[in-house]
Structures are given as C-alpha cells and as structure tokens.
Design a protein that fits this description.
- There is one protein chain.
- By secondary structure, the chain is α+β, with helices and mostly antiparallel strands.
- It has two domains: 38-217, no CATH class; 223-357, Heat Shock Protein 90 (2-Layer Sandwich).
- The chain is 62% helix and 12% strand.
- It has 13 helices and seven strands.
- The protein has helices at residues 2-13, 18-37, 44-62, 71-84, 87-92, 94-107, 112-115, 118-178, 184-216, 228-235, 259-276, 305-308, 326-336, and strands at 223-227, 245-249, 254-258, 281-287, 291-297, 340-345, 350-357.
- The strands form two sheets. The chain has a five-stranded mixed sheet. A two-stranded antiparallel ribbon has the order 1-3.
- The radius of gyration is 33 Å and the shape is elongated.
- The protein starts with a helix and ends in a 5-residue tail after the last strand.
- InterPro entries: HATPase_C_sf, HATPase_dom, His_kinase_dom, HisK_dim/P_dom, HisK_dim/P_sf, Sensor_HK_Regulatory, Sig_transdc_His_kin-like_C.
- Its EC number is 2.7.13.3.
- Residues 159-360 form the Histidine kinase domain.
Length: 362
C-alpha cells in the first residue's frame, strides 16, 4: 500500500512517466489486496514476495532505469520475508530479486557501473535478511520454550492444588474428632492447627483460581442477592476468634455477588490486615450510586505510595508468610464481578477497597 501511494506521488516529480507510475501503483494495490486476502499458511505467502520483486522491477523500469528509489524497497522486501520465512526461502529469493534489479537496468541501457551495483546491493540485502531471520527464529524458539514452561507450570499448579485438598480434608477431619478428647489447654493448639488447615485450603483454592484465570482469562460467577451482614459474619468464622475485627454494615443492605468469591475476597483482605497491619480491623460496606463498596481497613503503619500502585499485581508482595497471590486474586475476582480493587491511604493504616456493581434491573 505504501509503495503504491509513493508511486502516485512520484507522478508529481516525473509527469513524463505518469502512465508507467500508474501501472506500478495499480500493481502495488493489487498485490496488497491479494496479500490481505490469502491465508497465511504454508508457502502461499512466499509467492507474494516473488510478485513483490516483479513489481520492484517494473518500478525501476518506470523510472527509466533509476534504481535509487527501488533499491531500498528490495532490501525492505527481503527484511519482511526474513520475519516470516525460513532461510532457504531467502536464499531462493536470490534469483527473482537479482533479476528484478538487473533486467530493468539492462533494458534501459544503463552503464556497466550501474549494472555492477547489483554485486553490492544483493549481498547486503541477503546478509541483512539472514541476520533478521536468525534473530526472529531465536525469538520464536524462546516463545515456544516459554509456552512449554508455562504449560508445565500451569499443570503443576493445578495438580498441586487438587492433590493437596484430599489430604487436607483428612487432616481436618482428624483434628475435628480430636476436639472431643483433648484437654482445655490442648484445645488452643488444636484450634490453631484447624485454622492453619483452613488457610492451606484457601491457598489451594487460590492456586486453582490462578490457574483458571490464566487459562481462560475470566471466571464464571454464580451471583445472587445475599444479606451483607450475614455474608460477612459467615466468611469471618474462618478467622481466629480473638481477632479484633469490627463491622460497619447496614443491617438491611443486600449484596449482589458470588458468595464463594466474595468470601475469598473478604478473607484475603482481612487476613492481610491482621498479618501486616494493627488492630482494630474495620470491615465497612456502603452503597454508592452505582456500586456496593467493601472497605477493609487496618490501623498499621500504612503502605508507601509507590507500592500501592502495584499492590494488586501478581506476586507483587510475596514474602515469608505468602506467595504474593492474595491481592492479585482479589483484583481478578473483583474484575470478574465488573468491579475494581484499590488500596487507599488512611491515617493511620491503609484501606483495601473493592467495589461491586449493583444488580442491573431489567
């Protein structure tokens, strides 16, 4: 397309060859149309290159054998081919490329020095093309290798998350049975063990969510209307009983959310607030004009501004107590609801804010 437009502009500089330049422009536009319509599979696209060299030859002839304007297009065509085809095709292009350059010069009676310029241009063109092809091939190989690694990683994560849930269920059942036989002093240790099995279960669920989100790009939700207060209290039964958590929720407020995903969001935020902040942790839910706003605030030292901007990224804040997936999963689950997840500064502390769009009425 660009070559065709340049050919039409060339009429302004060389009106004496307007008819030839129009032919060149038509050839360029037809070639571009064919390239856009052909399926880019097999060797069919390589034939476009051969036709392109022919158009370059016609262009040189139309300019009366002046190759200064068409030589760069020959190199450019070779560079394009290097990005798409293997090196043997580049070598096979030597014949049509050389003919496209030399034949117009010979027909128009150019001096031997001009004709001899092919001995400089063609080696340069093929060398540039081979260098580009080698780099493009390395990049394709790296991309395929990374795709294989990612496939292996996804399989390992999925397998780990699935396989760990069975043993965890057995451990939890055993711990629950032991509650009826232990002394009051041992009960505290048993409660701690139960909380840790819950945490491991949630981590396994998070890994599964990570795999699902990476694979499909979205999560399927089962949204329904739930009383906000009951939803929050049910979710926080998984948090240790002595945690200083306070509520600020309208008793009449109803949330339109996926219950399981909402619980994951809330537990991730509350667990982070208890782990990294200072009590009390305040869970507040309010309704704005277009969304329900969940806010989990702690009273700790807060988070620096530069970290807040990337807090919800994947593996952004992993450490000894986690792998850095919790807040990323929160953001993904919020976006699956059509909402957002951000961190807002407070004095003192920080507030994690998730918004859920209101249910659309028919």
């Amino acid at each position: 397309m660009v070559a065709g437009l340049l050919a039409l502009l060339g009429i302004l500089n060389d009106p004496g060859h307007a008819d030839r330049l129009v032919i060149v422009a038509i050839c360029d536009f037809v070639l571009a149309a064919v390239a856009l319509s052909l399926p880019w599979t097999g060797l069919q696209p390589a034939l476009i290159g051969v036709a392109g060299f022919a158009v370059i030859g016609i262009s040189t002839w139309s300019f009366g054998g002046v190759a200064t304007g068409t030589g760069p297009f020959l190199v450019l065509l070779y560079a394009w081919a290097a990005l798409h085809f293997p090196r043997w095709i580049l070598l096979a292009y030597l014949v049509p490329a050389t003919l496209a350059y030399l034949v117009p010069l010979i027909i128009t009676g150019q001096p031997p020095m001009v004709i001899g310029s092919a001995s400089v241009l063609m080696p340069i063109a093929i060398t540039v093309a081979l260098l580009i092809e080698a780099q493009a091939r390395h990049l394709r190989d790296d991309r395929e290798r990374l795709a294989r690694i990612e496939q292996w990683r996804s399989g390992m994560v999925s397998t780990l998350a699935h396989d760990i849930r069975g043993p965890l269920s057995i451990v939890r059942n055993v711990l629950e049975e032991l509650q009826f036989t232990v002394t009051p002093d041992d009960q505290k240790m048993l409660d701690a063990a139960l909380r840790q099995t819950d945490r491991m279960s949630r981590l396994a669920d998070g890994l599964l969510d990570l795999d699902r989100i990476d694979s499909s790009g979205h999560l399927r939700l089962d949204r329904a209307t739930h009383p906000a207060t009951a939803l929050v209290k049910d979710a926080l039964t998984y948090v240790r009983a002595d945690a200083d958590i306070r509520f600020d929720i309208d008793e009449t407020l109803l949330l339109y959310v996926d219950k399981q995903r909402f619980e994951q969001i809330l537990l991730n935020l509350v667990t982070n607030a208890l782990r990294y902040g200072k009590p009390p942790v305040i869970v507040r839910i309010t309704r704005t004009g277009t969304a329900d706003r969940l806010e989990v605030r702690d009273h700790g030292p807060g988070i620096p501004d530069e970290l807040r901007t990337r807090l919800f990224g994947q593996f952004a804040v992993g450490g000894p107590q986690g792998v850095g997936l919790g807040l990323w999963i929160v953001r993904q689950l919020a976006e699956a609801h059509g909402g957002t997840a951000v961190a807002e500064a407070r004095d003192p502390g920080v507030a994690m804010v998730v918004e859920f769009p209101l249910q659309q009425t028919p």
